[in-house]
């Protein structure tokens, strides 16, 4: 039996807002399987679909030195991204995998994929996060519909503490965080891999072992924007 076809879109410093709009179009307007990888974005704060601004964002900091705020179409927590963030998004038809299409099995599949691809000792899934040892290196969000699902991740190649200060300590946090500040809870992937390029090369190599990978251009994908599909990704003005 042949490999399933996976379309690969590679982006560089693409605004995460535009990326999320692309993802939502591909999710809702196509039945193709996709992987989107993107290295860096202008600084943005991205909230899950049900996020509450007053509980997640430092209002005084946002009003004195604003950063664009986005609400994405998927669930999950709030992240702040910039030029040092690495993004990997999977959009799949449910039928091409053997695991049940529920959050936990999808997370377990993704954990195994990244363990194989990155080969970082002590990289594993902890609750809903990717961690190295006891520190978070990547945050996940998902969207599951009748025939399709999205699993997308922001990996911290590096981060600026001044940006992390925009985020309040949320009411609901992973148990393993154990009250730690952002600085003591997070780790940088540049301490474990030689370059951003090596990260993406490892992802692409592992994709090639599992799927029939066909590269796509931004022009190919942009054709799906502006259709009649529902769009819930939006920018928020505060």
TrEMBL record:
PROSITE patterns: BPL_LPL_CATALYTIC
Name by which UniProt lists this protein: BPL/LPL catalytic domain-containing protein
Alphabetical list of InterPro entries matching this protein: aa-tRNA-synth_II/BPL/LPL, BPL_LPL_catalytic, Lipoate-ligase_2_inactive
Top-rank lineage group of the source organism: Bacteria
UniProt cross-references to Pfam families, sorted A to Z: LplA-B_cat (PF21948)
Organism per entry: Simkania negevensis (strain ATCC VR-1471 / DSM 27360 / Z)
All copies of domain BPL/LPL catalytic, residue ranges: 30-211
